[in-house]
Amino acid sequence: MTTDIFNSAGEKLDYAFHGNSEDFSNLVLIGHGVTGNKDRPWIGTFADQLAAAGQNAIRFSFSGNGDSQGEFRNSTISKEVGDLGAMIDAAERAGYENITVVGHSMGGAVGVIRAASDARIKKLISLAGMVYTAKFNKVEFSDQTPDSGFMWDEEDCPYAQTFVDDMNSIDNVLAQGEKISVPWLLVHGTADDVVPIQESHDIFEKATTGDKKLMEVADASHVFSDDGLQPMIDAVIGWLNA
């Protein structure tokens, strides 16, 4: 895909395509986590290997992140659900029918919410997916003041009241997880100290319909760094190509 993609606010979303541009049999959309973007090295490696395994992939940055238009202070789960919808709209217009959504961390919550109501998503993959949004906000940013502080002391990532309100309003995505009826793979590192692996176990137990699989990656961190990256990628590719 080479077309410009805009969200409902008219903001252009930055993305990169990996794969065969003449093959419309499948497409994997990769969404990042809070304070992330499509250009994190591990995401690029992931997309490259997906393409090499016959899975077309698009890694994209949610609005306000990376090179996508918009302000980071407006970046919330609810807005990113809309961004993901814009990406799916563009993929559908391009001719893709077998669309898989991959969401990492907060992007995992985005994917669950979207997949619970968007039948165009044929498969869902959650990587260290966030489940308890209000709890995450409280644990990670309790030392910051909304509209004056920063997320993890990153000055490009202001901690906004809009983010706080959205996280608290959602509270958790367990109810949406119960509605997922498409094949769903959850992958989580046992050494994740940002989103505890128990969150994947909790939502997996709630999801009683469809084909679900939970895979643990031993000693892997939240971003599957070092020795955790390849096992995660192998698990995803094996599942997609099964």
List keywords for this structure.
alpha/beta; Rossmann fold; two-stranded antiparallel ribbon; 7-stranded mixed sheet; 8 helices
Architecture blueprint of SSEs:
Blueprint: E1 15-18, E2 27-31, H1 41-52, E3 57-60, H2 77-94, E4 99-104, H3 106-115, E5 121-127, H4 133-141, E6 149-150, E7 158-159, H5 161-170, H6 174-177, E8 184-189, H7 198-206, E9 212-217, H8 229-240
Parallel strand pairs: 2-3, 2-4, 4-5, 5-8, 8-9
Antiparallel strand pairs: 1-3, 6-7
Number of strands: 9
| Pattern of helices and strands | EEHEHEHEHEEHHEHEH
CATH topology: Rossmann fold
Q: How do the strands of the widest beta sheet line up side by side?
A: 1-3-2-4-5-8-9
Instruction: Give the CATH class.
Output: Alpha Beta
CATH level-four homologous superfamily name: Alpha/Beta hydrolase fold, catalytic domain
Percent of sequence in beta strands: 15-25%
Outline the low-pLDDT stretches. none
Find the structural class using helix and strand composition: alpha/beta
User: How would you classify the quaternary structure?
Assistant: single chain
**Alpha-carbon Rg, integer:** 17 Å
Q: Measure the end-to-end span.
A: 26 Å
* CATH architecture field: 3-Layer(aba) Sandwich
Write down the overall geometry.
globular
> Percent range for helical residues?
25-40%
Mean pLDDT: 96
Number of helices: 8
